[in-house]
Design goal:
alpha/beta, Rossmann fold, 2 domains, 7-stranded parallel sheet, globular, binds uridine-5'-diphosphate, EC 2.4.1.-, transferase, UDP-glucosyltransferase activity, UDP_glucos_trans, glycosyltransferase
């Protein structure tokens, strides 16, 4: 990839003008993701993008186990990115031993991890202080996650610019911020309500709120933790958002308005091998190991077996089902989903994680599914049930995959839309219901099957919605058409052609240039 002249130019100016300072420190970016796969993955991808476009030094900071994973995905021979760990012992915080990532915790334990992650502040402060001693000046900037908002205090104490990287989309994040900060649902008895910053016509529904948010009033632990991190993030010098200017115009308008900050759109942060293809090309084989090098997690099946299974099926005929890295559904919902999928007659790949109430790290149990289910659907080649973790990128980029039944986590949404795949939404937590709403109402690429863990989803409804989307007639066809349009916009945003540069590349270069100029000033 061509390194942007402007950025290199400014970097060179820095090196030439103040030779007393170590140039490494002056172009050093320190990044601090939250302790969750869905956050670490785009942070690493952003670091790789910056690495490709500049000569900057980049250090990703996290806890020992997360750093261990990151190092395994990105060996030193392949990168100049540094990985540094901060001391952290999960059992000191009432968490199970070796639990440093939300993917190994139940929903009720995640709050403890959010809380515990704040105790990293003193050691992060020491780390930056040591860097300054070593290099003679503070890093160029610190980029931290919204949920690590406290990093701004560290940045301020060293007079270093701080930027918040939003790993979610613009619409979903704007809604998440505004609802957590204003509790608009508490100001009405109606199920429907409007949200400050959003047009009056864009109504939200109580059922789109996670039960913890429905019950929150500003005094409980969740409110205090989340509000504090959001408010700290709003004191940043600006925000980077893992989205594309052209696909979320409304969400970006609102996000810029409610934060009052510059927002640079730098998405989709996906492996280049997935972006350099035309969305309309149908292909039956996929690049292997992109998922592993993105997450460092071994799938519950050899990727080749999964690809061979997909390749056996006709183009766009397979439904992929996953609830992401940290969510799952109830046992009753799992049974209904299983029977609905089978009744639909459509081929599917389903990543099954232990249902609510079971040890999230526990072994798969056949009793979670109808009797003989796995064997039956596998024998007919109708379904493949994967345990725990799937090679998601390889599945979504395979030409046999036709749609994605998802919890609407933002990384999954970008991975799916980049391939022009329509979505069947089943949002569960965080900002997922707002993502689903935006994709259904604004983009027209999603139909929501149900939401949350309390819903009584019937097998007949699963069957009906799966058929409607997979049959690609009427509404299903329209969703596919719109998903292909979004895919084109996504790919354009990261395309470079001579002097022409897509909006996300332009935006990333502009961000880097701004940071360098602010250091010069
Ligand atoms: N992922 C995966 N295999 C799985 C589940 C998830 O590779 O079985 C990856 C997925 O490709 C995505 C990330 O994990 O990049 C999940 O992020 P997302 O924002 O979709 O959801 P979250 O896990 O944060 O709820």
């Amino acid at each position: 990839m061509i390194k942007p002249e402007k950025v290199i130019c400014n970097c060179r100016r820095i090196r030439n003008s103040e030779e007393t300072m170590n140039s490494t420190a002056k172009t050093h970016i320190v990044m601090l993701p939250f302790l969750a796969q869905g956050h670490i993955i785009p942070f690493l991808a952003l670091a790789k993008q910056i690495e490709q476009r500049t000569h900057f030094t980049i250090t990703i900071v996290s806890t020992p186990l997360n750093i261990h994973h990151l190092k395994s995905t990105t060996p030193p021979s392949t990168t100049t990115i540094n990985f540094t760990d901060l001391p952290f012992c999960s059992s000191d915080h009432g968490l199970p031993p070796n639990s440093e990532n939300t993917d190994s915790l139940s929903q009720s334990q995640i709050i403890n991890l959010v809380d515990a992650s704040q105790t990293l502040q003193p050691s992060f402060h020491n780390l930056i202080s040591n860097m300054i001693q070593q290099h003679g000046c503070p890093p160029l900037c610190i980029i931290s996650d919204v949920f690590m908002g406290w990093a701004i205090n560290v940045a301020k104490s060293f007079e270093t610019p701080h930027f918040t990287f939003i790993t979610g989309g613009a619409f979903g994040t704007a809604a998440y911020f505004s609802i957590w900060l204003n509790f608009p649902h508490r100001k009405t008895t109606s199920d429907e309500f409007s949200v400050p910053g959003f047009p009056e016509t864009c109504r939200f529904h109580r059922s789109q709120l996670h039960p913890l948010l429905r019950a929150a009033d500003g005094t409980d632990i969740w409110s205090r933790l989340i509000q504090r991190q959001i408010l700290l993030s709003l004191c940043s010098n600006g925000m980077l958002c893992n989205t594309v200017e052209e696909i979320e115009p409304m969400g970006l308008d609102i996000l810029r308005k409610i934060t009052g900050l510059p927002v640079w759109t730098v998405g989709p942060l996906l492996p280049p091998s997935l972006l350099n293809r035309s969305a309309s090309s149908s292909f039956l084989s996929s690049p292997l190991n992109v998922s592993f090098s993105r997450s460092g997690k071994e799938p519950g099946i050899a990727t080749e077996n999964c690809i061979n299974w997909l390749n056996y099926h006709p183009p766009e005929s397979v439904l992929y089902i996953s609830f992401g890295s940290q969510n799952t559904i109830s046992s009753t919902q799992m049974m209904e989903l299983a029977m609905g999928l089978e009744a639909s007659g459509k081929p599917f790949i389903w990543v099954v994680r232990p249902p609510i109430g079971f040890d999230i790290k526990g072994e798969f149990r056949a009793e979670w599914l109808p009797e003989g289910y796995e064997e039956r659907v596998s024998k007919r080649k109708q379904g493949m049930v994967l345990h725990r973790w799937a090679p998601q990128l390889e599945i979504l980029s395979n030409g046999s995959t036709g749609a994605f039944l998802s919890h609407c986590g933002w990384n999954s949404m970008l991975e799916s839309l980049n391939q022009g795949l329509p979505i069947i939404g089943w949002p569960i937590a965080a900002e997922q219901a707002y993502n689903s709403k935006m994709m259904e109402e604004e983009m027209g690429v999603c139909v929501e099957l149900t939401r949350g863990l309390e819903s009584w989803v019937r097998r007949e409804e699963v069957e009906r919605v799966v058929r409607m989307v997979m049959n690609k007639e009427g509404k299903g066809l329209e969703m596919k058409r719109k998903a292909m349009e979004i895919a084109e916009k996504i790919r354009d945003s990261v395309r470079e052609d001579g002097d022409w540069k897509g909006s996300s590349l332009k935006s990333l270069d502009d961000f880097l240039d701004t940071v360098v100029l602010s250091r010069e000033r």
